[in-house]
Amino acid sequence: MQKHVLVVEDEAAIREMVAFALRKAEFRVTLAADTSAALVAIADAPPDLILLDWMLPGLSGLDLARRLRGEPGGGEVPIIMLTARGEEIDRVNGLEAGVDDYVVKPFSTRELVARIRAVLRRSQADDGDGSVQVGRLRIDGLAHRVFAGDDEIKLGPTEYRLLHFFMTHSDRAYSRARLLDQVWGGSVYVEERTVDVHIRRLRKLLEPHGLAEMLQTVRGTGYRFSGA
Q1: d(Cα 185, Cα 178) in Å, to the nearest integer?
Q2: Is the whole-model pTM more than 0.90?
Q3: Mind spelling out the 3-state secondary structure of the chain?
Q4: What tens-digit pLDDT sequence spans the chain (228 residues)?
């Protein structure tokens, strides 16, 4: 079955170049020139992945990512940010907004297609995972939902995979490199700093439920999840 990619890019030449490459790679493509058109497209036919330009007229791509991550259902769609902003602080801001990957312009369409396929593989890796519970924190694997007691916690796909790994490998310390290998995949290049950003996001989402302390920093090693 063809995967559906929504391309949100205001520059027509880039939009058409990306669309051509994705269709050649056998993706189904929907195009949007701004965030308003993107929201309409998402409501009409939810995509499997969103390729999102940072600099857009009106609401920025970064603001759209934050908005989607806060809406029911929107938090589950993988997002790749496409932008000319390549500074570390920009990458961190994108990751903290809930973006799953970051491609800096100029880029090759071959690399872009590879990144899209890698993110889609990661987002589907949890399909069929069993449920798991540690204390008040519970993952319903079939429904792909997370609960603190009776309250649902809305997680993005990366935070979901990270939490699922921790909950099924509790009380052990893992390095950032090991977490990258286990959660992101060893064949995908992602900076170790990415782990810290997603740990912060996950803690922030667990904090209102009094569960942030379950994610512990192990000095000199990395991170550990403990239900004790």
Answers
A1: 10
A2: no
A3: CCCEEEEECCCHHHHHHHHHHHHHCCCEEEEECCHHHHHHHHHHCCCCEEEEECCCCCCCHHHHHHHHHCCCCHHHCCEEEEECCCCHHHHHHHHHCCCCEEEECCCCHHHHHHHHHHHHHHHHCCCCCCCEEECCEEEECCCCEEEECCEEECCCHHHHHHHHHHHHCCCCEEEHHHHHHHHHHCCCCCCCHHHHHHHHHHHHHHHHHCCHHHEEEECCCEEEECCC
A4: 789 999 999 999 999 999 999 999 999 999 999 999 999 999 899 899 999 998 898 888 888 988 887 765 556 788 998 887 666 677 677 777 778 888 888 889 998 998 898 788 766 554 445 688 888 999 998 888 899 999 999 988 889 989 998 988 888 888 888 888 888 875 556 677 888 989 999 999 999 999 999 999 998 889 999 875
Domains of the chain (ranges; CATH) run 4-124 (3.40.50.2300), 132-225 (1.10.10.10)
